[in-house]
Design goal:
- There is one protein chain.
- This protein has helices spanning about 25-40, 150, 170-175, 180-185, 200-205, 230-235, 400-405; strands at about 95-100, 120, 135-140, 145, 155-165, 190-200, 215-220, 225-230, 240-245, 245-250, 260, 275-280, 295, 300, 310-315, 325-335, 340-350, 355, 360, 370-380, 385-390, 420-425, 430.
- By secondary structure, it is of the alpha+beta class.
- Among the domains are: about 135-180 and about 190-290, Sulfite Oxidase, Chain A, domain 2 (Alpha-Beta Complex); about 310-430, Immunoglobulin-like, CATH 2.60.40.650.
- Strands 4-3-12-7-8 form a 5-stranded mixed β-sheet. Strands 5, 6, 9, 10 and 11 form a 5-stranded antiparallel β-sheet that branches. The protein has a 5-stranded antiparallel β-sheet with strand order 18-17-21-22-23, with no helix packed on it.
- A hairpin with a 2-residue loop joins strand 9 and strand 10 (about 245-250).
- It is globular.
- It starts with about 25 loop residues before the first helix and ends with a strand.
């Protein structure tokens, strides 16, 4: 069993869904979302996923010439997005596979709950929170079963963390295409405020024994997804969460409760959590042997490579955007690291020949997305723009060549090499294949 293996330090840290009655407002909102789904349905699902169905194209909503001369719409139980804004996850109707967040349509760092990426192994279960329980047993003095309401009686914390699928970036690495959006390249990451109870509080309540070195975490979905988690992590910053972004978890993201392991690969953050068992050794489940074990170029493999290394992606400008002429343009994107804070982000506008330190916009929190920007004076000539993240440990996001050399072409997880975008002389932006 190989321990988690990091890429070596590279570069210098100083190198810069009988139809109910619906209102007009709801119809407009639904039309906008459906339109966005159609536009995004060209996304390729994760390898092995079923082909998604495309929704029908709705008629465009009527818009008055002078809105100030027409009474507005009344309020409803849920605010709708403007009909002019239609971000959406894609692909849709996925039960085994992934739906990607539209990174290029988002601003700031918090991902709206309905746009948080999804990864499913056998669909989204329907769970009654009044019947759902979490059992903690194994190497504990007092095996206990908690209802969801009982969990909420413990002291709660709210923390902002990113979540990322360990397969994020697979399509761009395996089958890269110039016509790939930021959503297609890296849309299996999201950033939210998570609310719940610290897991170590529950483990102390149960009397976790010192001989316990690993923890089995099991979900209540049809796949019964299970992972082995080190006790060191369980007793550190692990959470049992029931809310995200100020509201209950969305069903697709684990309602009513999930395990959250800041900085660890998404598959280990078990959704619809129902059982934790403490033991001395890892359980070697199918989702940590046949999958989520990463083949390396020297006929060995990485196993239990939980921590996500530093990574970044430019989200604007990115395909299919087109820059409207030479002049000053903002280069914006996201960076994150499972090992702590981002120390800085560098941007290159000449294909990596030179680098400039980008501005960090807003909060810079550990194990969370950070937004960066760099003002670029484009001269109208072809250019390749890139970003690289450096975290507080000194780790530098590697180039594609460095990454491939360390992991080999058969690697299947943790794709954290530098991404690039090519800007043509007419302003057309495409994904930088082979950067």
């Amino acid at each position: 069993m190989l321990a988690s293996l990091r890429l070596p330090y590279m570069g210098s840290s100083n190198d810069p869904t009988a139809a109910p009655t619906i209102s007009r407002r709801s119809l407009i909102a639904t039309a906008g979302v459906a339109a966005g789904s159609v536009a995004l349905a060209t996304l390729i699902p994760e390898l092995g996923a079923q082909a998604p169905q495309k929704p029908a194209t709705p008629a465009p909503p009527a818009v008055p010439d002078d809105p100030s001369m027409v009474p507005g719409l009344g309020s409803e139980a849920l605010n709708a997005r403007s009909q002019f804004e239609h971000p959406g996850q894609a692909p849709v109707n996925v039960t085994t596979g992934s739906s990607f967040s539209p990174l290029q349509d988002l601003t700031g760092t918090i991902t709206p709950s309905d746009l948080v990426f999804q990864r499913h192994h056998n669909g989204i279960p329907t769970i009654d929170p009044a019947k759902h329980t979490l059992t903690i047993h194994g190497l504990v003095d007092r095996p206990l079963t908690f209802s969801v309401e009982e969990l909420k009686r413990f002291p709660a914390v709210s923390r902002i963390y990113f979540l990322e699928c360990s397969g994020n970036g697979r399509a761009a690495f395996k089958t890269p295409k110039a016509e790939m959006t930021a959503q297609q390249v890296d849309g299996l990451t999201s950033n939210c405020e998570w609310t719940g109870v610290e897991l170590k509080t529950l483990l102390r309540e149960c009397g976790a024994q010192s001989s316990a070195k690993w923890m089995l975490a099991e979900g209540n979905d049809a796949a019964k997804l299970s992972r082995s988690i080190p006790m060191d992590k369980a007793m550190d910053d692990a959470l049992i969460v029931w809310a995200q972004n100020g509201e209950p978890l969305r069903p697709a993201n684990g309602y009513p409760i999930r395990l959250f392991l800041p900085g660890f690969e998404g598959n280990a953050n078990i959704k619809w959590l129902r059982r934790l068992e403490l033991g001395r050794e890892p359980w070697m489940f199918r989702d940590e042997t046949s999958k989520y074990t990463d083949p390396l170029k020297n006929d060995t493999a990485r196993q239990f490579s939980f921590v996500l290394d530093a990574k970044s992606i430019i989200t604007s400008p990115s395909y299919p955007a087109k820059i409207a002429g030479a002049g000053w343009w903002p280069v914006r994107g996201l960076a994150w690291s499972g090992r702590g804070k981002i120390d800085r982000v560098d941007v290159s506008t000449d294909g990596g020949k030179s680098w400039t330190i980008a501005e960090i916009v807003g909060q810079n929190l550990p194990k969370a997305h950070v937004r960066f920007q760099h003002m670029w004076k484009w001269d109208g000539k072809p250019a390749r723009i890139m970003s690289r993240a450096i975290d507080e440990t000194g780790y530098v996001q590697p180039t594609l060549a460095e990454y491939t050399n360390a992991r080999g072409p058969g690697t299947d997880y943790h794709f954290n090499y530098i991404r690039a975008w090519d800007v043509a002389s007419d302003g057309t932006v495409t994904y930088g294949v082979g950067a």
